[in-house]
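Data card: per-record layout.
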Amino acid sequence: MQKNRKSADEVAHYFGEMFQVFSEMHRILKIGGKICVVIGNTALHKVDILNAEVFLEQLQALGMNLVDIIKREIPSKNLPSVRDESTGRFAKISDDNLTYAYPTEYILVMEKQ
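The structure for this 113-residue chain is written out next.
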């Protein structure tokens, strides 16, 4: 149970830090300026983590308008990494018991109002 709480805290910390990054991007971006954020959803300890949805909500909360969401399937030969299903840690492609970490990427195109 403690391990799962630690993982949950790490995920929450990650989203908090990303919100700080998005806040700074919003601060320096001119009105009408656009940003693109490339992210993949993942899972940790068999819990889906919907990074793209959280990032979209964070950017909209800062006052950014959604221009487009481009969804792209990543060919298996180009996958950036895989996770060991038993530990949730990133692992080598040659390891047993693996699942794709990011089979699909989302490109969020946002505009500052």
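Known properties of this structure: The domain at 2-112 is CATH 3.40.50.150 (Rossmann fold). The chain has one domain: 2-112.

See the next section for split statistics.
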